[in-house]
């Protein structure tokens, strides 16, 4: 079996493993294996093919790792408007109970609202900041 065929099979195996596990780094390694296969097609020796696979695959893994580290993390899912459509909506809190909760009518149902710790609760319009279980954490507008 030709060297290029072996490299292509290893690259395909890495892609299949990535699809099964969801580890994006395996795609970077598959890129290195594909580069080694191309090097084999161009007539490079086994050592050169291995060096190409290590350099391209390792460089891609390192590059992806550095790129991921620079991206800022977004808010958690319970406070992310892209995940939960309730975040940012306005509710009217008529009264607060002594335990720090309140009740609002929102989207056709009664919801329990809570406020952030250390904040003095006041009535009036509030913005939904987070959804914690079946409670809305609200902030005064």
Automatic annotation (TrEMBL):
Domain of life: Bacteria
Record key words, sorted: Membrane, Transmembrane, Transmembrane helix
Domain NfeD-like C-terminal: 85-140
Residues annotated as transmembrane: 7-40, 46-67
Name of the protein in question: NfeD-like C-terminal domain-containing protein
Organism field: Rhodoferax koreensis
Lineage of source species: Bacteria, Pseudomonadati, Pseudomonadota, Betaproteobacteria, Burkholderiales
